[in-house]
Amino acid sequence: MESSELQEIWRRELGLLRPRSFACRVGGSEAVVKRLDLYGKLHGHKGCVNNVHFSPSGDILVSGSDDKDIIFWNWSNKSKILTYYSGHNENVFHAQIMPYTDDRIVVTSAADGQFDLRNQTPIKLLTCSSFSENKQSIRLNSITVDPRNPNLFSTGGFDAYARVYDIRNYHWDVSKGLDQPVNNFCPRHLIGSTNVHITGLAYSNKSELLVSYNDELIYMFQKEMGICTHPKTIQAEALQNLDQPQVYLGHRNSQTVKGVSFFGPCDEYVVSGSDCGHIYIWMKKTGKLLRMMVGDKHIVNSVEPHPFFPFLATSGFDKNIKLWTPMSRRSAPLPKNAKEIMAANKGGREVRARITLSPDVVMHVLTLQRRQALVYREAIPTEADSDSDSTPEEGSPADPTEGNIIHRKDKMQTSKARNGTSEVPQKTSPITPKSSRGSKKIATESDSVTSKLTPGKSSAEKSPKITERRSPKSPNFEKKRLVRQSELEHQVAQLQDELKKTKDQLNSSELLKKKVQLESEEAKKQLKAMEEKLEETECKLVEFSAAEDDRIQQLHQISQERDKAWQAELEALQEQRSNDCAALGSAMNEIQRLKQQLDMVLKSETSHVEDFESEQTELVALKEDMEATLSTVENLKVQINEKEMAEKEEKLTAYETQKELEMANTIIESLRSEGCNLQEYLNSATSKLEESRVRINALEEMVKELQSSVEDDEIESGKPPFEVESVASQSELEQLRAALEAAEAKLQEEQIQTTMKIQSAFEMAEHVKVDAGLRELELESTLQKTKAELFELKARLLSLETQLPGISQINKELKDEMDEAKASQFESEMRLIKATTDVTELKANILDKETQLQSIMEENEQIKSELCKRDSKHQKNYAAAMSDAEKAKSAEHEALMRLEVVNGEAEKISKKATKLSEQLEAAQAVKSEMEIELKRLRVQSDQWRKAAEAAAAVLTPGNNGRIVERTGSLDSDYNSLSGKLISSPFSDELDDDSPKRKNGNMLRKIGGLWKKGSK
């Protein structure tokens, strides 16, 4: 995975990225698209699968096929849910589950020009009509629903317009009239075109419409790019102002009906199939090609993305559905031959133009010949002509061809079927009414076409009615003739250019024919080689299967025989063992006696025991190391938990400090409010003091005035009545002054106290802020330290976890060594047993020497030795039998393994045979298609050759200024040709001339040539 995706995952793990944005960024990344790989295949259709579609919930996959069946799939476990017959008359091209219906309403469209809204019961079908006057029905290929507005759905078929319908305007009774679309989408250069049609449609989550055209490109339209409800009424200025849609190119969409879709959680990509068998994925915004995957052996029809996950479902000619998921470990680049494939697709689009004789060329030839005849007619006026001009006959047609030229739809269809590959639209024309004007009756010619083309024979040999009419030439006629000659020369030059073009087209068609023949020969060779390989593989399979059957039978017989022999031997051994058990019982007593002597032998094996103990001590040390590592891991985990708890406590302390800061801020604000109140009180007090000062000043002035008045009165009268009053006023003034001074002192004290309080509050707030900042810094530093320690602990954990498998492997190795030590101990015990047997033999010899006198004891010892020998022999035989049984079992197991291998190889060979048979069938289908294409090309080349010969014959000067008049009638082929001529745009030039200047001779010639070419 790339670094950007790793960064996204890291951000998601840290909680810095939302789950939805993470899904959009990672699910829609280029790395996911470049890792798409095949997940599985769904088998069930009997024809090529034209369409696949996921339900809105993403649990169900719906598919439509050429077998006209609709299948519901459980794609996760690759199984069918439901299969039903669609009811369409032709191939099903699209099937979709309607949204917001709980996966119960299905919409299908087919090549019969109908789409079906299917619920529990079928509903009447609506017919999509063209924008022409005749309102012909259009074959539909695709239908899609707007996810933003489920009432709107778009249909696409066999014209260039994508129609948008509103289901709210849908008339359930079709007999009331045809429903019109609410909007239409089409590229500017394709408006009015009849050579392309739509094969696939898709809506994005932003109501962007994606349209795929047959043998054209893919276009993406914004919602506001619609043209109008009726494209025929749009003006040229409006066409020029239309916005150009986004274009996606590189693929080829010619052979089948192909779908197109958006891909990605936010519709970041555009996906489509191709005739080259590849799946194309483009960037939606830029149109850049991002991925090319091989999705089919022949053609990929449909590519459908999952609504939620980065999965794709594709279908094509292989009669199965392929599922794609991002399973690959490496991002796949574009293939090395991508440019060659895209160039081949582009060349195929350019070469695909059908090789047909253009009606314009035919009409040019006809108009040229007709004007030549009219020039000769003007040059030779006669009395009969003047009489006919002066006295016209009523009811006579202006031209004998006009009354007989009738356009018939069946004739046009037969002529189109003969041309086969023509895509030129055949315009219907009404029956030409007979002219009321009189003109000279011109006889038609009834001779064969070969007589018309032989210039060596004279017209007098064919009919006695041939007359030559000539008159003197006038100067006006000479001028007209020169003008006509210049026009005719220009037209001849144009016709020569067109003939050159037709010859070039013929040459290209012949080259294509040769290429197709070479390809068919190569395909035949490949088919022969494949058939030979198939025969060889079948022969090898038959031989191999026969040899394997014989070998299996032989192995079964051998195993049965061995089983019987082993069973017999086992039964004999069991009988011997039962007999020997009694003898062993008596021998056990003697063995117990010998155990005391074995103790002496055990001392010699103490060295082995000491080695074993040393190994055990090493194991114990390793176990202790393991326990120490585990304890360290547990301690680390405990430390991590403690760190996490410390982080939580630090977070709590930070939260508490934040609360304290908030409280300090509230206290500061309250102190500020109190200071403001105190300032207001001080202001009010100062205002009162100023008022009292003003009053005191006023009183002092009044006292001074009174004193002055008193002094004047005393001087005048010599009476001191106001002295007492002045003394009283002075006392009042002194009291007021004392009160003022006291009030000023109180104000000053209060001001000093308030300023002290405010300063202390500010100092407290600053102190709290400083403390909070320091604590925050300390907490941040501790958090960073804890994060670093956590990261180190995690790294240590990861390293220990990486070391754990190594330690576990060491433990396993130690256990294996323990097992080996146990095995060696068992071997040492066996050696001890052998040593004991040797000791017994030595003791027997000693006893023999000591008890030579006692014969009974000797016989007993002999009997005992014989019993021991028998026991040893029986044990050896039993061990040999067991080893043989184990060998037989191993041989049987090997034989079974070989059988499984052989069966696997047989299955592989059978699969290869089925694949080869499928390839043969596909090659035969390709061969048949190539043969059909060869036949069509041969018919086209023959038609071209005949048309070119006809045009060359028409261009050769034939009559040398003479007019041939013969009696006869036109055949049905001539009527069909004249119908084509009337429907052609050059018919206006023919109608411009007067009836007496029309000559049917050249028309009859071209009719005969056309008849010959059609044969």
Automatic annotation (TrEMBL):
InterPro entries: ICR, WD40/YVTN_repeat-like_dom_sf, WD40_repeat_dom_sf, WD40_rpt. Pfam families: WD40. Gene3D superfamilies: YVTN repeat-like/Quinoprotein amine dehydrogenase. Residues 459-483 have a biased composition (Basic and acidic residues). Residues 414-436, 445-457 have a biased composition (Polar residues). WD repeats lie at residues 42-83. Keywords: Coiled coil, WD repeat. It comes from the Eukaryota. Residues 485-803, 839-866, 899-947 form a coiled coil. Residues 381-483, 980-1015 are annotated as: Disordered. Belongs to the ICR family. PANTHER family: INTERACTOR OF CONSTITUTIVE ACTIVE ROPS 2, CHLOROPLASTIC, INTERACTOR OF CONSTITUTIVE ACTIVE ROPS 2, CHLOROPLASTIC-RELATED. This is Uncharacterized protein. It comes from Dendrobium nobile.
